[in-house]
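Problem 3 from the worked examples.
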Amino acid sequence: MNELPRIGQSMTFRKTMTVAEQGFFTGITGNMGRAHVDRAFARAQGQPDMLVFELAAAGLFSTAFGRIAGPGFRLGRIETQFARALPVGTSLAATVTVAESGADGILFDLSAEVDGQQVIAGRAQLVPLVSGDV
């Protein structure tokens, strides 16, 4: 096993959520929530554009997990809170910070910001990938 990450180690992944990603996420999940796929409907609800799928936005944390933990871990649990809806075109900065690190797993604090304002908070635990997982 590689060296475990240290407490306080963090990584930020930045990405602008686009219409193309909305299409990919819809194709993968089958989610056809109108506020996420119908621009006219979203605008009629007072939104500036279609809304980013919350799970697609939270998925940005996975890039940072992998870069800190490496290939020997998988997601064991994740908890997220979303402060507000995010319109397509939003640029997110998703940061994970190691809160605990040991042979049984790595606990991360999660924070995603838009223009310096926290819009997603949470915690996640990565657990060791073992042969029984396949």
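Problem 4, a separate protein:
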Amino acid sequence: MSTDINDYITKSNTTAWKALVEEDVDTKGISVKVLRYDEKQQRPPTFMLRFEPGASYPYHNHPGGEELLVLEGSCILEGTTLYAGDYLYTPAGFKHSVKSETGCTLLFMVPEEVEIIS
């Protein structure tokens, strides 16, 4: 393990947003910034998502739970609107969708890959 702290810093202000692409999932209007990539899991457990106004992510399950912090704007989960500064913890097995009518930027910590529910 490296002891250089710089090996563990992500400069998110200089990292470009990339279109979120997931096979068989409509992610139009959603962009991602990966903050931490887990080589063992081959996925990012910590990332930011930016939703353009009207964008949504489909109903899904969180086998390992999740943590979400609204950085900017607002989003709606299960009929409840969250605003900048609001924090959400969901336990393992919690299911929901996400949409934003106004646009938003969200910080996520998701320890396990989500499962889309059709």
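Solution to problem 4. The chain has one domain: 5-116. The beta strands are 18-19, 30-38, 43-51, 56-62, 66-77, 80-83, 87-90, 94-99, 104-109, 115-116.
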